[in-house]
């Protein structure tokens, strides 16, 4: 039998491993031993981040050794630990789909895989577990085109008792094919509801919100979680006009929102480039804005104050100058 296109094989493996990684995340919360490591200001890593990244990276790199894989966490090599975590299964229903022709001729080394094993760690540490997602994005020629967003704590199981057990859900998409696992319910457009960071706020974000004058602001954790709020009609736009977010935070959410006709850009309205960098600097220096459709996106981008944009470009050039 002819082998299925690489894009389909990577997505079906990523869907499978993301939900297994979600089970590991739930397991860690049950032990109560988060093993928190401080990476910076409001920037943490827990045992759940570590185990989920090991599982995802070990599983995908074993199957797809020629794909470039970029994971958020800097982990020491541990072949024994990795070997025990390998997930070999695939989502068979995805393997049966027919993908758009543009993806059919891609080779394994055309794909870059972006792994955020646990997005929303600040909220996770605080116990706000619904904000957490496992993110696997796939880019081709610098554009994010496919993504898997798994929410490990989607539903509290009824009758789960004081132990509290949860069921997760997995959403995935390929631009041009569609989005699966979620129903898009756009909000009426007579009002503007914006979602933004709960734990990484600053002057740039506050000034942008003042200029946007939204009718409602939802401050919640996680880039993945905020894009789900946009898709499910809780907010029109996710506005983060600040540095701090990285490519692994935005790759999967960007692909799922775009597959539904949404738009994701930096604070200037330009596309984010998802290319491999030898220096490992994957910061989205110019911020991130994600909206349910192009017209709302254009209106939001047009209102971002100039002084905010100037601060973003200044920070980017200062930061790059001090590095090189
Ligand atoms: P938030 O909206 O604050 O949950 O941020 C979305 C994602 O970007 C999370 O993975 C955060 O860890 C990351 N992030 C945003 N701002 C910062 C920052 N200043 N330092 C470290 N990570 C950040
Ligand atoms: Mg993240
Ligand atoms: Mg993370």
Can you walk me through this structure?
- The protein has 324 residues and is of the alpha+beta class.
- It has ten helices and 13 strands.
- It has helices spanning 6-31, 47-63, 79-84, 92-95, 121-126, 203-212, 223-231, 247-259, 294-303, 306-323; strands spanning 37-40, 43-45, 68-71, 111-119, 133-140, 143-156, 166-174, 178-180, 193-197, 216-220, 237-240, 263-265, 288-291.
- Strands 3-4-5-6-7-8 form a six-stranded mixed beta sheet, with helices on both faces.
- Strand 1 (37-40) and strand 2 form a beta hairpin.
- Helix 1 packs antiparallel against helix 2 (47-63).
- The longest helix has 26 residues, at 6-31.
- The relative contact order is 0.13.
- The mean pLDDT is 96.
- The site of one magnesium ion has 6 residues, from strand 4.
Can you write the helix and strand succession as a string?
Answer: HEEHEHHEHEEEEEHEHEHEEHH
What Rg is obtained from the alpha carbons, in whole angstroms?
19 Å
Mean pLDDT figure? 96
Q: Please work out how many helical segments DSSP would assign.
A: 10
Low-confidence spans: none
Structural class: alpha+beta
Biggest sheet: strand arrangement: 3-4-5-6-7-8
**Residue share in helices?**
25-40%
**Measured distance between first and last alpha carbons:** 51 Å
Number of strands: 13
Net shape = globular
Listed once per kind, the bound small molecules are:
adenosine monophosphate, magnesium ion
């Amino acid at each position: 039998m002819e082998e299925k296109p690489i894009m389909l094989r990577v997505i079906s493996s990523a869907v499978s491993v993301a939900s297994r990684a979600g089970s590991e995340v739930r397991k860690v919360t049950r032990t109560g031993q988060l093993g928190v490591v401080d990476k910076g200001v409001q920037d943490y890593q827990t045992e759940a981040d570590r185990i989920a990244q090991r599982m995802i990276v070990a599983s995908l790199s074993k199957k797809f050794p020629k794909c470039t894989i970029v994971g958020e966490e800097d982990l020491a090599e541990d072949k024994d630990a990795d070997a025990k975590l390998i997930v070999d299964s695939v989502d068979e229903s995805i393997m049966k789909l027919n993908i758009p022709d543009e993806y059919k001729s891609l080779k394994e080394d055309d794909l870059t895989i972006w792994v955020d094993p646990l997005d929303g760690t600040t909220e996770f540490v605080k116990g706000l577990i619904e904000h957490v997602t496992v993110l696997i994005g796939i880019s081709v020629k610098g554009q994010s085109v496919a993504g898997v967003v798994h929410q490990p704590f989607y539903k509290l199981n009824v009758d789960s008792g004081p132990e509290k057990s949860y069921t997760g859900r997995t959403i995935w998409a390929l631009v041009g094919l569609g989005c699966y696992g979620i129903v898009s319910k756009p909000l009426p457009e007579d009002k503007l509801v914006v979602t933004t960071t709960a734990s990484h706020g600053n002057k740039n974000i506050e000034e942008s919100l003042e200029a946007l004058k939204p009718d409602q602001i939802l401050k919640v954790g996680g880039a993945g979680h905020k894009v789900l709020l946009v898709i499910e009609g809780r907010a029109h736009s996710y506005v983060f006009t600040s540095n701090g977010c990285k490519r692994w935070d935005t790759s999967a959410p960007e692909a799922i929102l775009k597959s539904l006709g949404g738009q994701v850009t930096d604070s200037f309205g330009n596309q984010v480039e998802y290319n491999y960098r030898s220096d490992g600097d994957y910061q989205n220096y110019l911020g991130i804005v994600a909206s349910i459709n192009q017209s709302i996106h254009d209106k939001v981008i047009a209102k971002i104050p100039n002084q905010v944009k100037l601060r973003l470009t200044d920070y980017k050039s200062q930061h790059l100058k001090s590095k090189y």
